[in-house]
């Protein structure tokens, strides 16, 4: 399946999309939730169904971070190609298989998660996504408290001294909003234009704000 996906990305047009059969079934089941009236509930139900289908509800944040470190995913603007993504995802799901062998089918999970990540972050079908995008997708759906996820993601875009500027925050919000966008729920979160959100975050604070002001960031989120 990964070879077919790789060949499709290399030879077909931007408007062409290939999905694993199981992913196509998942998308249909997500579409069935569109009759849920309230957007917050509808989005939450879609995210939960997606999380469980990818077995990321079994993934703790410490385990995810260990995999990131194992593969030296330090440069968040570095591009990862399909082979690198497959290698990282294989390591991740092999760890999950050790404690959840009855729930985790490693090849299927790798194919499904790869398919989802590319659909979310590689709409141009280049066969590559940024390291930050990979981390954002995995951490957003892993098993952890929301505040812990926010802290982790904030630190990915903060400088070595713990400061974050508008450009870096914009990168994080851009990658974050792609998840509800791909689920057809971006309108519920103010649309895909993140610039007003970035400006509002800095409206009442300094041009740069540090990790010591993370509580402010969490409140804004």
Descriptive keywords:
two-stranded antiparallel ribbon; Recoverin, domain 1; 2 domains; 61% helix; 5% strand; 11 helices; mainly alpha; single chain; 221 residues; two-stranded antiparallel sheet; globular
- Tell me what the CATH architecture of the largest domain is: Orthogonal Bundle
Tell me, briefly, the overall form.
globular
Fraction of residues in helix:
55-70%
* SS-derived structural category: mainly alpha
Largest sheet: 2 strands, antiparallel
Strand percentage:
under 5%
The side-by-side strand order for the widest beta sheet comes to 1-2
End-to-end Cα distance, whole Å, is: 38 Å
CATH topology of the largest domain: Recoverin, domain 1
Total count of helical runs of at least 4 residues = 11
Specify the CATH homologous superfamily of the largest domain: EF-hand
Number of domains: 2
DSSP strand count: 4
Level-1 CATH class name of the largest domain = Mainly Alpha
Mean pLDDT: 86
| Low-pLDDT segments, ≥5 res | 6-16
Task: Report the order of strands and helices.
Answer: HHHHEHHEHHEHHEH
Radius of gyration: 17 Å
């Amino acid at each position: 399946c990964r070879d077919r996906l790789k060949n499709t990305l290399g030879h077909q047009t931007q408007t062409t999309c290939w999905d694993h059969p199981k992913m196509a079934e998942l998308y249909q089941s997500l579409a069935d939730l569109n009759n849920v009236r309230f957007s917050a509930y509808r989005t939450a139900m879609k995210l939960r169904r997606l999380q469980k289908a990818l077995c990321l509800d079994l993934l703790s944040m410490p385990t995810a971070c260990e995999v990131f470190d194992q593969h030296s995913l330090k440069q968040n603007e570095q591009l990862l190609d399909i082979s690198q993504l497959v290698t990282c995802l294989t390591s991740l799901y092999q760890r999950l298989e050790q404690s959840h062998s009855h729930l985790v089918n490693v090849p299927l999970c790798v194919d499904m998660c790869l398919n989802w990540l590319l659909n979310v972050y590689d709409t141009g079908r280049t066969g590559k996504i940024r390291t930050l995008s990979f981390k954002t997708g995995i951490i957003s759906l892993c098993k952890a408290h929301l505040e812990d996820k926010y802290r982790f993601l904030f630190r990915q875009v903060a400088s070595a001294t713990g400061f974050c500027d508008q450009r870096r925050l914009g990168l994080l919000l851009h990658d974050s909003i792609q998840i509800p966008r791909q689920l057809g729920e971006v309108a519920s979160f103010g649309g895909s234009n993140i610039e007003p959100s970035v400006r509002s975050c800095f409206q009442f604070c300094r041009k740069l704000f540090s990790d010591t002001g993370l509580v402010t960031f969490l409140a804004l989120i």
